[in-house]
Write a sequence for this structure.
């Protein structure tokens, strides 16, 4: 039972941190939802704590034969937002196409509740079905990135329909450009928190980014038990320096592909891509 109490206390702490982040981002709807989630968690903790007290009193009185069996602790509450809205939160933070694993990792670091990558496998298909049954009924749709060569869905990359077409297209250099851009956007989000006491998932995420950007990590004179060092200013400079090498070429590729897409694809295909066969035929059209 004490383990369940510890889990609920940890959950309350996570929700309080998430509320602070939402407040800094001026997301009043998210603050309201998190506050309701926090109140439910507090009530669950109160009920479990009272149950633990009653059990201890019964054991102290020696009336063990009449003790009621312990009830299972209330399930740990999850975020109230549907999966599509959780994904939208993360993609809005990253501002680049992203794979389910990255979306899940960033959500765990910055938002309340869990978002397993397996929950996203059918999401894109559901979004396309929804769009085709009632186009424009939703304020946004989660859709795949489009490849710059075939204008077909890029495997495993999600975007938001409200982004520009150029932003939703990926070319040969886009993976690196998106990695560097997302590093900068995550650093921005981290700086809106208390950088002196960054939550561990946020710190771990930033360290992984820094490890994959040349010059983004400070030298380590001695191994530290606290883990790899993190310097947000250094990470930002290194990411910006490398971006200058790739951005112009990547932007040209995506701009040209977007112009071709607008002349060849219908509205639905501009969001969800054409079939592989039709994309090959369209590519051959002068």
């Amino acid at each position: 039972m004490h383990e369940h109490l510890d889990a609920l206390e940890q959950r309350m702490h996570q929700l309080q941190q998430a509320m602070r982040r939402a407040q800094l981002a001026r997301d009043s709807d998210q603050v309201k939802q998190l506050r309701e989630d926090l109140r439910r968690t507090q009530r669950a903790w109160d009920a479990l704590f009272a149950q633990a007290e009653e059990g201890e009193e019964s054991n102290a009185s020696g009336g063990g034969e009449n003790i009621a069996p312990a009830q299972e602790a209330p399930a740990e509450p999850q975020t109230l937002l549907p999966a599509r809205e959780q994904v939208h939160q993360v993609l809005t933070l990253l501002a680049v196409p992203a794979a389910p694993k990255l979306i899940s990792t960033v959500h765990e670091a910055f938002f309340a509740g869990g978002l397993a990558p397996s929950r996203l496998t059918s999401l894109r298909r559901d979004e396309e079905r929804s769009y085709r049954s009632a186009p424009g009924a939703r304020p946004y749709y989660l859709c795949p990135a489009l490849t710059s060569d075939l204008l077909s869905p890029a495997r495993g990359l999600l975007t938001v329909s409200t982004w520009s077409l150029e932003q939703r297209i990926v070319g040969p250099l886009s993976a690196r450009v998106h990695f560097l851009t997302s590093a900068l956007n995550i650093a921005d989000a981290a700086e809106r928190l208390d950088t002196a006491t960054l939550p561990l998932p946020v710190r771990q995420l930033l360290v992984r980014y820094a490890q994959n950007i040349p010059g983004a990590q400070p030298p380590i004179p001695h191994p530290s038990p606290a883990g790899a060092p993190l310097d947000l200013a250094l990470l930002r400079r290194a990411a910006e320096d490398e971006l200058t090498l790739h951005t112009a070429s990547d932007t040209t590729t995506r701009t040209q592909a977007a112009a071709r897409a607008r002349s060849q694809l219908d509205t639905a295909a501009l969001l969800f891509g054409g079939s592989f066969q039709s994309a090959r035929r369209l590519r051959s059209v002068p």
